[in-house]
Amino acid sequence: MKYVTLSDIAQKTGYSINTVSHALHDKPDISPKTKALIIEAANQMGYIPNASASFLRSGKSKCVAIIVGDISNPHFSIMIKEMEGRLREQGYTALILNTDENEELEHSAIASAIGRGVDGIIICPVQTSAKNMDFLTKCRLPYVLFGRYFKNFTSNYVVCDDINGGFVAAEHLVRLGHKKLLFVNVPEYISSSFDRLQGIRRALMYPDARDVNLETEEITLTNNERQVTEILEKHKDCTGIICFSDLIAMQVCHYLKQTGRRVPEDASVIGFDNIVSKFCFPLMLTSVTSSKTRMSIQAVDILMEAINNPEFKSQVVLPTRLVEHESTMRTG
């Protein structure tokens, strides 16, 4: 395929290559009439600006990498779309990379993004260790964490108040009369996992929850269907189930249905992320939510500031609340 060049446009319009270049870059030394003529010719010919040449001139690629653990998770899909839209408003394009919650793949994604000359990275980190954050920091590339954070790093981040999220989820089930609760969690090295569990435990310290029993089980973030099945078989007596994510909660609801247990009549289920705010499902989950739009926009805006000012620091914690739908009800 032959790409249209400035020389091709110059030959078609009769102007010099320098005039064509200035017109396409909206330079003030070219008259509006000439600009319009050259731009119209460029569009008709299918001209595509050379991003590499622009990078060499400005030192900026106008591209940002968004790195997530599981792009198939609707929670991430929603946020990537919001981020991509915000980046587009700022004149940037997005490079989307998936890690499958694997530290080695995350390192490869970071290295790949840097190799492609991105101006910055927005990342939901794997968190099995901080090695990749050390690597990213040493590369001196602006980055923002979203959804998760490291307590011992001064990284820019946007997260939600997961402690309150766990608290309101447990409080809701206690208020509905549930005495045996199950928290289907993921490994506690993930900051949101640890904080949500702390919030649940805090809610059960109140006098009206003294007779409530809490069981906790950990599963992997991906390929966990068999683990979910084994946990629910083990905890058949639990009537209130809190899940780390809406995706896990959907798996729980599916299994309960397969074994003849009704949601919410036999078991109330709560998720996190409130993906039903953007999608309609056969069962509308009660879920803990924080504004995905606000988190996405703030992550992009913080990165833009960090790109322009390497000393800029911002750590944002967004409020959480429970959105009650049809997967919970009073027990008994």
Notes on the protein architecture:
The chain is an alpha/beta fold. Helices cover 43% and strands 17% of the residues. The protein has twelve helices and twelve strands. The strands form two sheets. A six-stranded parallel sheet has the order 2-1-3-4-5-11, with helices on both faces. It has a six-stranded mixed sheet with strand order 7-6-8-9-10-12, sandwiched between helices. Helix 7 links the parallel strand 3 and strand 4. Helix 8 runs parallel beside helix 9 and helix 10 packs across helix 11. It is elongated. The termini are far apart. The relative contact order is 0.12.
In spatial order, strands of the major sheet run 2-1-3-4-5-11
Main beta sheet: 6 strands, parallel
Spans with pLDDT under 50 lasting ≥5 residues?
A: none
Average pLDDT, rounded to a whole number, is 93
Euclidean distance between termini CA atoms: 70 Å
State the share of residues found in helices, binned by percent.
40-55%
β-strand percent reads 15-25%
Rg (CA only):
25 Å
H/E series: HHHHEHEHEHEEHEHEHEHEEHEE
Q: Return the structural class.
A: alpha/beta
What is the number of helical segments per DSSP (H or I, 4+ residues)? 12
Strand segment count = 12
**Gross geometry:** elongated
For the structure shown, list the relevant keywords.
332 residues; alpha/beta; 6-stranded parallel sheet; elongated
Topology readout:
Elements: H1 6-13, H2 17-24, H3 32-45, H4 51-58, E1 63-68, H5 74-89, E2 93-98, H6 103-115, E3 120-123, H7 131-138, E4 143-146, E5 156-160, H8 162-175, E6 180-185, H9 191-203, E7 213-218, H10 225-234, E8 240-243, H11 246-258, E9 268-272, E10 286-289, H12 292-308, E11 315-318, E12 321-323
Helix pairs in contact: 1-2, 1-3, 5-12, 8-9, 10-11
